[in-house]
Amino acid sequence: MKKIKFGLKSFLTRGGLIAVLLVMLVVSACEGLPVEIQLPWINTPVPSKETEPPVEVDFTLTPESPEPEPTQTREATVKELILWLPPELSPFDETPAAQLLQEKLDNFAQEKQVKIVVRVKARTGSGSLIDALTATKPTAPEILPDLIVLSATDLELAVERELVYPHDRMVEMMTDTDWYPFGQELSQVGNEAMAIPLLTNPLSLVYNKASLLPPSDDWLAIQDNFGVFGFAADDSQAKYLLLLYIAAGGDVMDAQGRAILQEGPLVEALTALKEGLSSLHISTLSIGFQTEDQVWNAFATRGLDTAVVTIGLVLNRQAENENQPNAALTKPEITLGTAFGWALGNPDLARQELALDLLAELSETEFLANWSEALGRLPARPSALATWQDQNLLPALESIAHATSLYPSETVMNRLGPALRNATLLILRDGADPVETAKTTIESIK
Question: pTM value?
Answer without folding.
Answer: 0.81
